[in-house]
Fold this sequence. Notes:
- 5 copies of one chain form a homopentamer.
- Chain A is an alpha+beta fold.
- The first copy, chain A, has helices spanning 5-16, 56-65, 81-90, 95-103, 159-166, 177-190, 192-211, 219-248, 257-322, 349-371; strands at residues 36-42, 47-51, 70-76, 109-112, 118-127, 133-142, 146-151.
- Chain A has 2 domains: 5-294, Beta Polymerase, domain 2 (2-Layer Sandwich); 323-371, no CATH class.
- Chain A contains 10 helices and 7 strands.
- In chain A, helix 6 (177-190) packs parallel to helix 9 (257-322), helix 7 runs parallel beside helix 9 (257-322) and helix 8 packs antiparallel against helix 9.
Amino acid sequence: xxxxxxxxxxxxxxxxxxxxxxxxxxxxxxxxxxxxxxxxxxxxxxxxxxxxxxxxxxxxxxxxxxxxxxxxxxxxxxxxxxxxxxxxxxxxxxxxxxxxxxxxxxxxxxxxxxxxxxxxxxxxxxxxxxxxxxxxxxxxxxxxxxxxxxxxxxxxxxxxxxxxxxxxxxxxxxxxxxxxxxxxxxxxxxxxxxxxxxxxxxxxxxxxxxxxxxxxxxxxxxxxxxxxxxxxxxxxxxxxxxxxxxxxxxxxxxxxxxxxxxxxxxxxxxxxxxxxxxxxxxxxxxxxxxxxxxxxxxxxxxxxxxxxxxxxxxxxxxxxxxxxxxxxxxxxxxxxxxxxxxxxxxxxxxxxxxxxxxxxxxxxxxxxxxxxxxxxx
Amino acid sequence: xxxxxxxxxxxxxxxxxxxxxxxxxxxxxxxxxxxxxxxxxxxxxxxxxxxxxxxxxxxxxxxxxxxxxxxxxxxxxxxxxxxxxxxxxxxxxxxxxxxxxxxxxxxxxxxxxxxxxxxxxxxxxxxxxxxxxxxxxxxxxxxxxxxxxxxxxxxxxxxxxxxxxxxxxxxxxxxxxxxxxxxxxxxxxxxxxxxxxxxxxxxxxxxxxxxxxxxxxxxxxxxxxxxxxxxxxxxxxxxxxxxxxxxxxxxxxxxxxxxxxxxxxxxxxxxxxxxxxxxxxxxxxxxxxxxxxxxxxxxxxxxxxxxxxxxxxxxxxxxxxxxxxxxxxxxxxxxxxxxxxxxxxxxxxxxxxxxxxxxxxxxxxxxxxxxxxxxxx
Amino acid sequence: xxxxxxxxxxxxxxxxxxxxxxxxxxxxxxxxxxxxxxxxxxxxxxxxxxxxxxxxxxxxxxxxxxxxxxxxxxxxxxxxxxxxxxxxxxxxxxxxxxxxxxxxxxxxxxxxxxxxxxxxxxxxxxxxxxxxxxxxxxxxxxxxxxxxxxxxxxxxxxxxxxxxxxxxxxxxxxxxxxxxxxxxxxxxxxxxxxxxxxxxxxxxxxxxxxxxxxxxxxxxxxxxxxxxxxxxxxxxxxxxxxxxxxxxxxxxxxxxxxxxxxxxxxxxxxxxxxxxxxxxxxxxxxxxxxxxxxxxxxxxxxxxxxxxxxxxxxxxxxxxxxxxxxxxxxxxxxxxxxxxxxxxxxxxxxxxxxxxxxxxxxxxxxxxxxxxxxxxx
Amino acid sequence: xxxxxxxxxxxxxxxxxxxxxxxxxxxxxxxxxxxxxxxxxxxxxxxxxxxxxxxxxxxxxxxxxxxxxxxxxxxxxxxxxxxxxxxxxxxxxxxxxxxxxxxxxxxxxxxxxxxxxxxxxxxxxxxxxxxxxxxxxxxxxxxxxxxxxxxxxxxxxxxxxxxxxxxxxxxxxxxxxxxxxxxxxxxxxxxxxxxxxxxxxxxxxxxxxxxxxxxxxxxxxxxxxxxxxxxxxxxxxxxxxxxxxxxxxxxxxxxxxxxxxxxxxxxxxxxxxxxxxxxxxxxxxxxxxxxxxxxxxxxxxxxxxxxxxxxxxxxxxxxxxxxxxxxxxxxxxxxxxxxxxxxxxxxxxxxxxxxxxxxxxxxxxxxxxxxxxxxxx
Amino acid sequence: xxxxxxxxxxxxxxxxxxxxxxxxxxxxxxxxxxxxxxxxxxxxxxxxxxxxxxxxxxxxxxxxxxxxxxxxxxxxxxxxxxxxxxxxxxxxxxxxxxxxxxxxxxxxxxxxxxxxxxxxxxxxxxxxxxxxxxxxxxxxxxxxxxxxxxxxxxxxxxxxxxxxxxxxxxxxxxxxxxxxxxxxxxxxxxxxxxxxxxxxxxxxxxxxxxxxxxxxxxxxxxxxxxxxxxxxxxxxxxxxxxxxxxxxxxxxxxxxxxxxxxxxxxxxxxxxxxxxxxxxxxxxxxxxxxxxxxxxxxxxxxxxxxxxxxxxxxxxxxxxxxxxxxxxxxxxxxxxxxxxxxxxxxxxxxxxxxxxxxxxxxxxxxxxxxxxxxxxx
Lengths: 377, 377, 377, 377, 377
């Protein structure tokens, strides 16, 4: 089935190959995509957007020549070790941090440089069609006039933010550089909700299926799979919440008070996402209870049918067997044996036996009805 | 069934549409009601009450002209974005806070402005007929001579408080402005109890139904639904308790000691509500145990009937089958075969077989009685 | 059954009627008893005891005239709102505290007045015959030369303490006024043990009943009921422990070090009571496991009987049915059909069939014995 | 069965009789043994050991005359109230502490006197043959040149320590007085391991019994009993760990740093014992799962036998019943009814029916084999 | 089965023999291997590697003569008490720490000497073929120019680190002495991942087996065994995480800030390992649910077959029994009894009965099909 593959494989591939390596050794996974570089440079009045893929040197020149602008350097794909090392060198990143970026399975966290720059990791989630949470890592480095972001895929969930930056009327352009880092975090957080909504819809679907007495195949497997998703989602979001809480505790010279109010809002959102996840967990646990009780009920139903049929027919079978006995009315020598089954020789014998059996059945049916076994309780 | 719709839908609608939006962007949900504005202005000797719906400008004039009075500005309904933005601007509210007000699915919380004003969110609960907790948000902003409250519905649970303010003898009128914020919080807390009582009554009803061996249809569904309510109630009240605890930790210049004593009382009430919720959780868990054990007992009962019927009749059927065999007393050539079922030719054969079967049944009944299967244990 | 009525009802009655009331509004429940007032005045050499019911004014005079004595003012019954308000006024109690006293469902707690006086709430427990924990509230206010106690009932668990005070040789008389408050708390704590012991006895009784294979009616109900008691007891005692812990953290000018050593002892006792409660919870959970496993065993036993009977007789019934077939030895035209059941015409046919069936039964019995189904495992 | 008697009885006896007594009142339980007094006096070069039972005065004289030696005063048995009170008075013990000593059911704890002396309580465990944890209390008071220890029994687990003191080469004799208190605590801790090992052995025995498909009688009772032991053991050791943690937090003038390093070691041991207890809990919970699954498997097995037998013979019985019907080949008036069971008059009728039944059985056996019901899965 | 032997035995052997011994007494277990001594001496330009087994004196000489180099003294095997005591003496180790080294069952921990040297314990894990976690202890002492490591086995998981040191280009050689201690800790942490991966593979295998409806023998045993491994792994890694957290809290003069950044990275790794372990626990718990539900489904399936067979044939058997009754068409005296089973004398009697039975069977099959009992739901 492979539905645990994703996270274990990710971790294993990322780590097994480096057992015993020097910590901070950069490794690029084989399947990593060729990096593409995008730049957005803006201030209140200016906005320039350009792709610098394969033109990293020109990007550096641009950055040196325009210190007054705010820059979002957007690196997508890790598949070029030399470029990664050059970025690490040029932007003064720690090898361990760069290792975190490239390993691509890192809990959400924030780290502060001595010069007050920040390194943040967020996890972007997506809910795929086959009920799996797909999560990617977004790594951010902030600098005085840039935010440097890394991610593995070319596609991401940040386009709405790009659109906002492109707009001439965006307040985002007037805010300090660090606000961009917040905005990125916030977009990631916002994308948790569609994931949650998809999970919630699926849970509700299962609920309705059980309530409608339509039991899909492998129902328990599905319940457990969605449970796994919810558990995984919580494990993704808890560090996100902790990260934001840590940001809120940063000194004001690192994170200005005017930005903290936004993080406080983000913190509330993270808490709400966790609340919802807890609520889903409760629902799933109730679903499991329902499933198991339903299983028991089906067994009871089967047993009831068996019992009713048996209880009705077993006595009847006895009666008909009784009158199938071959006790002889005469002993073969002409002597009548009047005690041996005289009923068989009565004119009303057969109708009376039929009547008797009818009465027995009626009594049983009344008993079963009173027990509630005939109604579908 | 839809019984998880409420909270998930609320959150989804509120958030999905704003994925990628600038944080602090105000959105008014389509179904939001047209705002109505009410004012209560009072001090120890004065009391004026007036509706200012569609007359917001006049309200502002009044407020400017009567700084010496205490005002409760009571906004019900969010369905006018322009008015909401004007309120935000005129009362100096932060866009993120205004967003919290309008999103209408916010955990209870308190935030302090730099100028010591407070922003509080409470959740008002109601227990609807079809066993759902209906919760609405009450958002409060305090100022030196006003409390500005927002809620989505025209109807609320605050009428008892309004009656108290209207009374000439109310101590409330003599107390500081902030006391009104407390009084609002307290009324909301007080309304948790009828909700809890309704839940408690329902649990008791289910308990009694099980104990009386009357098993309503879909009992487990009902148990799980009420469990969901209790879980939800706890999730509503925990933040309320934390909010009050945070208020108690506010410095005295923000929240005077003389008011904190009231919040301490409110804290006790919140704790008691949580206690009760915990107690309900225990009861519901016991109910589930009872239900499942009862399910097992029913199965046992069915099995017992089956066993008793089978065990009585199967041997009897064997006996009657035995004497239904066609072993011949003569070999067709006139030779008597004396060993072949001579019982059939005995004068007392039939009565003795009947007697034998009677004895077998008696032995079995005694055995079952001793096992306790005939009594309804 | 109503066994959850006690606490829910108490809370509901106490709170519903006051939804929307001004906090601190005093309410006297209808069924509250008429207050009786008792005074004990003592110092090392003096001891006076008198009932002042309906003579509250004389009590005040006495107190004013004898400031050098220590006084225990013992109010039993709340049924006189005017008196309650006068007490509140004369002893400088806060309306919210008085409300706590009269609501009579308050968690154990301690509050400190600005002038270092204390307000303490304890919960006294009693274990009634029908397996319910009956708990009453003891509210204490301490002053420089008095302890003012409130309780709802005329009967209480404090008589042993009264006897100690009456004794001329009691060290209690020599200790400071506050020691009396401790002594009252301690007596309440001591009364937790008989309650626990009664619960423990009952659990043990149920255990023994299960082990002795005597299954009382409604066993699971009983288990769940006693579980409810234990859970309730824990909810009563946890706040008591927290209260004492808070007393231990009080500054020395409020609670002198020489008294704290006694509270440390009380703290140990509270912890031990909670320990015992936890232990009971474990026992009850084991009982439930035993019960459910026992239920499964009974089902197994029923199934085994059914299986044994069926397995023995079904093949036999087949055999006797076989020889009850009417295949004809001649075709009605005088031709012998020698293949049609020649056994029926053999001289030893019947005995051999009986023998065959005996052998089959023997083989089956051996098989069942080996399976261990005949022994009562 | 009485296996909960030990702790509840101990507590009840100890506490019930003192409900309402003055806290700190000394009580000696009736069954308490007559106290025996032992003294070990030592320093680096000296070692004297003597029993002072019934010669308490001489003991005091010795202590007064030899202030330069270290003394271990070892009181075993509490059955002499006068002596206990004298000890309390002479060594300056607090009545509440003395009460703790004599009650003999006290959680492990440490208390510090104003003059830096210590009062410690440890619980010594023993695992009796009938699977019960037997625990005794060891109470210690430290002084400048003595350790005063109390215990209820004459026999204890401290002999190995005594042997070490007696040895001339023991470093213990050179260490400060307080080290003896540590050594006593450590010996008690060391004795937890044999108890744990005995519990572990028993769990493993039960595990092996289940795995070997040998199911001892009352297996679940045994599992639950050993679970009770483990739970009890944890409740004993947790306070011990907390006690040591508290000792580690004592200021250096009360507990010198050079001794704390030993307590740090003891702390590790306590943690390990708790780790082991947690591990046993997991094992026992797995055992319960195994037991219940095993119970279900047995039921399945019984059902399978029933099903196989019934499914094979019920159709066969139908067939033989079919040909036992008495439809007449002629209508009694000489007319042949050719449609009425002509099979009965065919020469190969009987063998063909036998063959048919054989084929039916074969088909069923193949079906069952494919279902895996014939193999013992 | 013995799968709990490892840890309990290890602890018991290590501790039972020393019950009552002086704490800090060194004991060498009988089966301990003869120690081998290895030295790596290096700085940026130098690298010397030599085995000093049985030449401890020469090792000391080397260390004294080369204070400028960094040394890793690598002791493998404890089986020489004299050497262990000499090491303890020469390197100034505390007897209690040396005892921890030799006991070889110690939780991960860190201790700081007064002179800022460190004592660290790590647990190295390995996952053996028969599904057991094999764990060994790595004990480290750091000094100004050496790291002294102890382990019980000759083989370990540190070879990758040795290779790195041997490399001329290793940055490790340029870093401070303490970095080696970190590198050792990190290698141990890295080796947790293959263990986790092996456990994860095994869980997935079991999952797939259940989903493929192939049920291996003793499936539950296997599930519980792997659960035990995961629980054990968590108990190993939690202290490791706590150790690293404690290192991060060490003052900078003990652990320089430049090294803490590496430990922060290690902390993240430990957290991830624990995350994975939690995730496995969830998976295993889902597996158990699946197993038990599967067990119930199998029972349902068996019951269904039984019910279908019985329900089809029991009525049929009644019918054929009915017409096997011997009611006589004449009373033996020539009088016809027309009511006694006239069907038997009808020309179409037999075919009609066959047809009737066919219709009954059809009706039942349709009923079962509608119930879904014929399809394999």
